[in-house]
Design brief:
ABC_transporter-like_CS, alpha/beta, Rossmann fold, binds adenosine-5'-triphosphate
């Protein structure tokens, strides 16, 4: 990541942001600048507000306080500089749209024009985005009949095809096998290195992307920490954040967190007890 300078505008700038639903505050006082080419992992247990954070950046969720700038503008509207991989939802089996058409939706029509040249250029871009996620074999089939992982790879292609300045990814590795988790993480990493795309990557499992992560935003129970993985993913920082002893174990280049789930269960006693070593963020 290159250091901030005056002539490079940040990809994302969040000032004094807060989000509350009724009496429940998901986060408040959030200040964050994400630079072009930076890879920010957004971690935290279920319901801590990770997806809502991405939705606030997209203008799909209003803030309770503060402001957001993304790709040089306000969130919302048709900002073509933002690629978004939404949290996976099953696509209706009856959807007959083909993969190539789904990916093509990630391109804005007017830039290519109706002429033959425009259409050929558009087709080439779509084909190359599909190739990059390894989806060429099934890209002409109806999306509704593809497996969850195949659909997910097309969603990644759709988010990347428009040459975004900022890529917002909500658990993009879900339902991918290990080989494709790796291929997609490396593809996203290479895009931010070569094109300077900032990546905000929501995940429950940091290990598959740990080699790429510059900084972590960790959300828990209305609190958050921002910093390099080595600063945030420590026993002392996470224990402070969870409000109880949480053990962070670093083994073979991977990070494992023990005790976080039971910390949350104590706060919400109706949940099942799971006090095994686990990764919740
Ligand atoms: N529009 C809304 N109105 C009321 N509550 C909402 C709304 N949107 C989200 N919430 C609540 O805010 C909390 C945070 O939701 P969010 O989806 O951001 O969590 P998350 O960290 O992404 O969780 P997960 O890991 O389970 O995907 C949840 O408890 C959710 O029910």
């Amino acid at each position: 990541m290159s250091p901030a300078s005056d002539d490079v505008r940040p990809a994302v700038r969040v000032r004094g942001a807060g989000l509350a639903f009724g009496p429940r505050t998901l986060w408040s006082g959030l200040d964050l600048v994400v630079e072009p080419g930076e890879f920010l992992a957004v971690l935290g247990p279920n319901g801590s507000g990770k997806s809502s954070f991405l939705k606030a950046l997209l203008g799909m969720q209003g803030l309770s306080a503060g402001t957001v700038e993304i790709a040089g503008g306000r969130p919302g509207g048709a900002n073509r500089k933002i690629g978004y991989i939404p949290q996976q939802r099953a696509i209706d089996e009856s959807l007959t749209m083909r993969g190539v058409d789904l990916v093509g939706l990630g391109l804005d029509g007017h830039r290519w024009g109706p002429g033959l040249f425009g259409m050929a250029a558009r087709r080439r871009l779509v084909a190359s985005a599909i190739d990059a996620v390894g989806a060429t074999r099934y890209a002409k089939q109806p999306v509704g009949r593809l497996s969850g992982g195949e659909q997910q790879r097309l969603r990644v292609a759709q988010a990347m095809v428009g040459d975004p300045e900022v890529l917002l990814c909500d658990e993009p590795l879900l339902s991918l096998d290990l080989a494709h988790q790796r291929a997609i993480s490396e593809l996203i990493d290479s895009r931010r290195r070569t094109a300077g795309t900032a990546v905000l990557f929501v995940t429950h499992e940091i290990n598959p992307v740990l080699p790429f992560v510059d900084r972590v935003l960790y959300l828990v129970n209305g609190q958050f920490r921002i910093g390099k993985p080595d600063e945030v993913m420590t026993t002392s920082t996470l224990s402070e954040l969870y409000g109880t002893r949480v053990e962070v174990l670093k083994v073979g280049g991977q990070i494992h967190i023990a005790g976080a789930q039971s910390a949350l269960c104590e706060a919400e006693p109706h949940h099942h007890e799971h006090d095994v070593e686990e990764q919740v963020g």
